[in-house]
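Teaching assistant's notes for section 4

Start the section by putting this record on the projector. Ask students to predict, before seeing the second block, whether Ribosome maturation factor RimM will look compact or extended. Collect guesses on the board.
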Amino acid sequence: MKYLEIGEIVNTQGLRGEVRVQVITDFVAQRFQIGAEVTAFPKQGKPVVLQIDGMRRHKQLVILHFSGYDSINDVEFLKPALLKIRMDQQANDELEPGAYYYHQIIGLPVYDLNNRKLGQVKEILDLGPNDVWVVERPDQSDLLLPKIDQVIKQVDLEQSRIVVDLLEGLE
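Reveal the predicted structure now:
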């Protein structure tokens, strides 16, 4: 079964079984809504399917509570753990034109307007008004590309390639 990573449990919160989650999805309200099912993949142990019965935001984190886990002792084994959903759980997402899932972009090769390969996307940073795509280049430092129309000219998922216009100062 394939999974999509949506967050990472980084610590416990309080004594009543809550956990702190570093979010890595743009669908926070949908992914972490009460009643949603997620799978935790702890560093130690087997994956555990959990049902969310409490959610609130705290700074850059989300605080979650899971059904049946009512004390800090119940959730201690989850730190750290990756939180994932099954790929079929994303089927009802409505993406705006030009919007993509992180997993669709990470790993794609990046080319400039002259068809010169620059490298491949290794991660996506959420830094406020727009994402920044980090392109790993061989024998060079990483290239940081803002996800704006002036820079990202084409994302072709079928051909597995991204075409960018390297504006002055980006390289």
